[in-house]
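Subject: sequence -> structure tokens, single chain

Hey, anyone have a minute? Need the predicted structure for the following. Not urgent.
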Amino acid sequence: MLTAVGGTAVVVTREPVHQAIVLSVFGLVLATLFVVLQAPDVGLSQLVIGAAVLPLMVLLAIAKVRGRERR
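Reply:
Had a minute. Here:
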């Protein structure tokens, strides 16, 4: 249930910075789900990629685009 709510929250969020934060929380929920379903290797991968690296890349891209818009 949390996975469905989290995915919907990512899609519904309109502000890109907030969307990246919600995406990170969604990654944490998915990682927890994988560990509960006894797939710790997949959960660890999801934790690193889905909860940390992907939102960081999105935030860096947003910062770069906004930096270009200011010039």
